[in-house]
Write a structure and sequence with these properties.
single chain, de novo design (two linked rop proteins), 0% strand, elongated, bAvd-like domain-containing protein, 23S_rRNA_IVS_sf, bAvd
């Protein structure tokens, strides 16, 4: 089975988050760090569920995934504002999250246009 690009990108983000969490102070590692990791894992789970779900159910998984992405983005912002991790790594991760958001939006849009295609009249 082929892996979708959005899943690959989310996997890359997860690896970056693990690296940032591992190099952060202990007080942040086991609170905000673990929370961020769990948000990205939840996003990954919803994307995989959407990939394997029947068409009518895909949208609900993608909406949940979008929520997890938004939460992860807010936590990354906290990482930046509290100076928990390297600024460059945070910006790179935020950039990939923005790309995932665009991919997610495109996927949802393609599902909506497929299910609501108007009939053509001659």
């Amino acid at each position: 089975m082929d892996t979708l690009p959005i899943i690959n990108r989310t996997y890359e983000v997860y690896k970056q988050v693990i690296d940032m969490t591992h190099h952060s102070e202990k007080k942040w590692r086991y609170s905000l760090g673990i929370s961020l990791e769990n948000s990205v894992l939840s996003l990954l789970q919803e994307l995989i569920m959407a990939k394997n779900a029947p068409k009518p159910m895909k949208t609900s998984y993608l909406i949940k995934g979008g929520s997890h992405l938004e939460i992860a983005t807010l936590k990354l912002r906290l990482f930046l504002e509290l100076k928990i991790a390297n600024e460059t790594k945070i910006f790179q991760t935020q950039s990939k999250c923005a790309e995932i958001g665009r991919m997610l939006g495109g996927w949802m849009k393609s599902l909506n246009t497929q299910s609501f295609t108007p009939e053509r009249t001659p």
